[in-house]
Structure prediction request, 90 residues.
Amino acid sequence: MYALDFTPSRVCPRNIHVEVSDDGSTIEKVEFSGGCNGNTKAVAKLVAGKQVDDIVELLAGNQCGIRGTSCADQMTIALRQAQEAARSVA
Prediction:
């Protein structure tokens, strides 16, 4: 398993903690610090056990109002970074 703490920008959460499988293909866990508690918990539950590529394809570019990004979009950036790091170590 590879873990990464990501500092998102232009969204409410202060941190997004992601854990991916050793090969970077599967999301093991996501935790948001801050933000809309119910929504971020729901997103974390929905993506656990899913393939990183599938979730990134589905949620990348999702926007919240005029921010130009969203919690889900920022999570996809964190997932990609964790995936790339996991693959470089493997």
